[in-house]
Structures are given as structure tokens and as C-alpha cells.
Write a structure and sequence with these properties.
Elements (H helix, E strand, L loop, with lengths): L1 E6 L8 E8 L2 E7 L8 E10 L1 E7 L13 H14 L4 H17 L2 E7 L4 H12 L4 E5 L1 E2 L20 E2 L2 E3 L2 E2 L7 H12 L7 E5 L3 H10 L6 H7 L7 E5 L5 H10 L2 E4 L1 H6 L7 H6 L3 E4 L11 H17 L10 H15 L16 E4 L9 H5 L1
Parallel strand pairs: 1-4, 5-6, 6-7, 7-10, 8-11, 12-13, 13-14, 14-15
Antiparallel strand pairs: 1-2, 2-3, 4-16, 9-10
The structure holds guanine (GUN) and zinc ion.
């Protein structure tokens, strides 16, 4: 297939007219100007961008968006665990994951890293549905063994799958330290090690102040929250840590040393009033960053909206007295939801327009003229 338009190969530069040839799901050829043969998609006015990637989403929470007024742990107990319990019924899991996939596709999200529930049958069903769609997916059964309803305490863990199969990859997802005993953290680490190169580990870290206090009570011998994961070998270059709002300097340093990825979820942090992410600290410590919708704590599935929320959060910090705040530019934000998130999820053949990269691209038809504000207008 030939795709024609203004190619957003680098959001920091004005895009040039060009074309892509896509075959077998890959970009096999690229050229400048109009294509030699008629394009199947696009025109000289279209904008071609890599599809968006969401580095942190909970598929079983797709119908739980908007339940406001609670702190993280109360919200988990009252809203989220009841919603996730419904996935015991495989039909519900199939239906709700299909809804989530449809909404992502409609919003231009073509790749994601997701939490499911602890139900094995739901996991199998969701993976089956994902295989039928044009999506790159990293999905993990939730691992947890305390502080949740008994129905959600990971009774299917012995069957947790950890195989890689094409576009749908399994990850190891201990929920967060509050809901995980020493045993289950150890099991998560050993599961992750069974894959060559290590499986992707996906968890939450230091989202709310109350959560951090609970972790201190539950793991009194550890220096800090990140240290709990590190002691179990869970901080690796393949680890995704959602949030990272309440971190000490030592924790930033440790995360940087382990080359783990913090997934910033700005819409979720505002919704649950968990705190304002310190983008400067992440940059100063050289911590790898990705961006996530964190549905349902984050109310918006569209990654451009999440990218805007990141910019807004930095502007708020700057306007309310924080000094030397780096406010990301629109093109930095666009890079994060495409190439940056692909790199964070270990898929450096995605999120970019290059020969050999995945052919997961979007063809946008803007209603405005292209000028130097293109990316800001798109966001
Ligand atoms: N921490 C542990 N579980 C969750 C979850 O489902 N959502 C969010 N936002 N934080 C969590
Ligand atoms: Zn989350």
C-alpha cells in the first residue's frame, strides 16, 4: 500500500511531502515528493504520523471512568475492584476489552501496555481478541495477594502466561506493593526472568502519599518504596513504573541507575488529586519517561489529550511558584506519544516513520493550513 502526505518523521521540523510503501505491516520504502504510482491513502494535504502508543492503561476499567471524589486506595476499593470482579465472566471481559480496543483505535492509539485482571480465562480471551485487531499490545494478568476482595487475589497465578507471540506480548504485572506480599513480588521477578532478556514488568510506584505511607508500614525494613521493588529484582530496563509522584532523590537515582521507565500519567494524577509529577526531577536524573492514559484514573483515552495534560501540569507548576520548570513543547509531547513511548515499551521498530519500522501510521486530514504551529494545532 502507498500512503501519501506530509511526513512527520521529526515533529521538531516542518514536514515535507513524501510517501511510504507499506507491505506486510512494515514500512518497506519511503520517498520525497509525490509517489510514482497513485496512493491508496492520503494526498499532498494529508499529514502522516506514526500511530499513538499508550504506555499505561487498564482495559477492565473502561466503563469505570469518572467516579470522582476519592483518594487512590478508597477509589480502588469502592470503584475499581468491583469493576474488575466482573471479568470473572469471560463474556464481560471480551465485551469490555473490545470496547477499549475500539475507543483506542478511534483515538489513533495503535499500541499499548495494559493491566488486565487476575482472571486467567479473561486474559486468554482478551489476547485472542487483540490478535484480530491492528494493535500492538503488551498485556499482563494482575498479580496481587492482599488488600483486595478474595475473588481478585490471583488464584490463577500458576497459569500465568509469559510467552511472546508476535504483536501481542505478555508482561508480568504485580499491581503495586500495597497489594503484594514478599512471596508474590518474588514470584513476579522469577516469572519475568523465565523469558530471554527478561519479560516486561509493569507496576505502579508512589502514586499517592497515602499509598507511600502504607508501603512504609508494610515493608518497614526497606529504605523506600522503589527499594522494595529493587530488592526483589523488579527494577530493570524492561520495567514500567506508573506515576512516580512521591519519590525521594535516592529513589530517582536508583530508578535512573536501573534504567527503568517511569510512565507519567498526568490526567490520572489530576483526577485522583494524587500530586503533580516532577518532570524536572526526571530530566535531571536522566530517568527514561513514557506517557500513559491510566484509564480509568485518567478520564481521557486519546493520547494527544494526555500529552496536553503533561504540558498543562508543567505550566501549572511554573505558574504556582516552582522555579526553572521545563515546559515540554508540543513537538516534544508528540514525540513522547509516538517514538518515545515505543522506545519505553522496548519496541524501537515502532512509533517512527522509517524503512523497516512498523507500518502503524495515521493519515490525518487537518482542517487548517500547515504552519509552524502544526503540532500544537494537532494536539
Ligand atoms: N495502583 C494500584 N492499582 C491501580 C489502578 O488500578 N489504578 C491506578 N491509577 N493506580 C493503581
Ligand atoms: Zn494504573
Amino acid at each position: 500500500m502507498i500512503v501519501h502526505g506530509l511526513l512527520l518523521t521529526d515533529p521538531a521540523r516542518q514536514p515535507d511531502e513524501g510517501w511510504l510503501a507499506i507491505d506486510g505491516g512494515r514500512i518497506v520504502e519511503m520517498g520525497h515528493g509525490a509517489p510514482r504510482e497513485k496512493a491508496q491513502l492520503g494526498s499532498a494535504r494529508s499529514i502522516i504520523t506514526p500511530g499513538f502508543i499508550d504506555a499505561h492503561i487498564h482495559l477492565p476499567q473502561i466503563n469505570a471512568i469518572g467516579c470522582d471524589g476519592m483518594e487512590l486506595m478508597e477509589w480502588l476499593d469502592r470503584v475499581i475492584y468491583p469493576a474488575e470482579m466482573r471479568w470473572k465472566d469471560e463474556a464481560v471481559a471480551i465485551q469490555e476489552s473490545a470496547t477499549a480496543y475500539q475507543r483506542m483505535l478511534r483515538a489513533g492509539t495503535l499500541g499499548f501496555a495494559a493491566f488486565l485482571t487476575s482472571h486467567f480465562h479473561a486474559y486468554v480471551a482478551v489476547v485472542r481478541v487483540a490478535h484480530q485487531l491492528p494493535l500492538r499490545a503488551i498485556v499482563g494478568q494482575v498479580m496481587k495477594d492482599r488488600h483486595a476482595p478474595p475473588e481478585l487475589l490471583g488464584h490463577d497465578l500458576n497459569r500465568l502466561a509469559s510467552s511472546e507471540r508476535g504483536r501481542v506480548i505478555s508482561s508480568v504485572n504485580p499491581r503495586y506493593a500495597v497489594a503484594c506480599s514478599e512471596d508474590i513480588l518474588r514470584l513476579a521477578a522469577s516469572r519475568a526472568r523465565t523469558l530471554e532478556g527478561g519479560a516486561i514488568i509493569h507496576t505502579h510506584l508512589a502514586e499517592s502519599a497515602l499509598e507511600v505511607r502504607r508501603v512504609r508500614e508494610l515493608f518497614p525494613d526497606d529504605e523506600h518504596y522503589a527499594g522494595v521493588y529493587d530488592r526483589h529484582g523488579l527494577l530493570t530496563p524492561r520495567t514500567l513504573l506508573a506515576h512516580g509522584i512521591h519519590l525521594s532523590r535516592d529513589e530517582w537515582q536508583l530508578i535512573a541507575t536501573r534504567q527503568a521507565v517511569i510512565v507519567h500519567c498526568p490526567t490520572a494524577n489530576t483526577f485522583l488529586r494524587s500530586g503533580v509529577f516532577d518532570l524536572n526531577a526526571a530530566r535531571e536524573h536522566g530517568v527514561r519517561l513514557a506517557l500513559g492514559s491510566d484509564i480509568a484514573a485518567g478520564p481521557d483515552i486519546a493520547m494527544p489529550r494526555v500529552a496536553r495534560a503533561m504540558i498543562e501540569a508543567s505550566k501549572m507548576r511554573a505558574m504556582t511558584g516552582a522555579r526553572h520548570v521545563h515546559v515540554p513543547t508540543p513537538d516534544e509531547a508528540w514525540s513522547m506519544i509516538t517514538r518515545g513511548n515505543a522506545d519505553g515499551l522496548g519496541g524501537n521498530d515502532a512509533g517512527r516513520l522509517e524503512v523497516g519500522a512498523s507500518g502503524d501510521v495515521l493519515v490525518l486530514e487537518p482542517a487548517f493550513d500547515v504552519d509552524e504551529h502544526l503540532i500544537g494545532r494537532l494536539l
